[in-house]
Amino acid sequence: MFFIGPLGLPELxxxxxxxxxIFGARKLPELGKSLGEGIKNFxxxxxxxxxxxxxxxxxxxxxxxxxxxxx
Length: 71
Description:
2 helices, mainly alpha
C-alpha cells in the first residue's frame, strides 16, 4: 500500500467531507451504526476464539486394559 506520512487533522477532515458527499448526511448515522455493530461482532468473535484456545481441552480417558491372554 502506498502511504506517505501520518494522517493529520486536515487530511481527516478532507476524508470526512468526501464521505459526507458520497453517502449524504442522512445515511451517515445508519452507516456508523452498522460499522459499530460490525466492529463489536468482530471483537466478540476474536475474544471467544482466544478463550477457546486458552481453555484446557478435555483429556482423553486412558484405554482400559483387557484382561486375559498376556504373554
